[in-house]
Amino acid sequence: ALPIYIEADSPFASLGLSQGDVLLSANDVVFDNLGKGVEAFQILRNAKRIDLKILRGGQEVPLTYEVK
């Protein structure tokens, strides 16, 4: 799991991510070690859809984005 630092005017904030959210996975890549960030980048850079799972306030929350 990776804690997320979100700036108020960042693209991540516009997607609905908040300060304090913890990124658990992206398109089934589970962030259980730091090396997973590179793996996720390779998978997500051409993805048309991104499915995230985050931990927010102790609750797992799924988020889905269509890339345009």
Shape: globular
What proportion strand? 35-45%
Structural class, from helix and strand content? alpha+beta
Q: Average the pLDDT over all residues and give the rounded result.
A: 84
Largest sheet geometry: 5 strands, antiparallel
Q: Which spans of ≥5 residues are poorly predicted at pLDDT below 50?
A: none
Extended strand count: 5
Share of helical residues: 10-25%
The string of secondary-structure elements, in order, is EHEEHEE
Rg calc: 12 Å
User: What is the overall number of helices?
Assistant: 2
Span between termini: 27 Å
Topology:
Elements: E1 2-3, H1 11-14, E2 22-26, E3 29-30, H2 36-44, E4 49-56, E5 59-66
Antiparallel strand pairs: 1-2, 2-3, 2-4, 4-5
Q: What does this entry look like structurally?
A:
- This protein is of the alpha+beta class.
- It contains two helices and five strands.
- Strands 1, 2, 3, 4 and 5 form a five-stranded antiparallel beta sheet that branches.
- It starts with a strand and ends with a strand.
- It has helices spanning 11-14, 36-44; strands spanning 2-3, 22-26, 29-30, 49-56, 59-66.
List its salient traits.
alpha+beta; globular; 5 strands
At a glance:
By secondary structure, this protein is of the alpha+beta class.
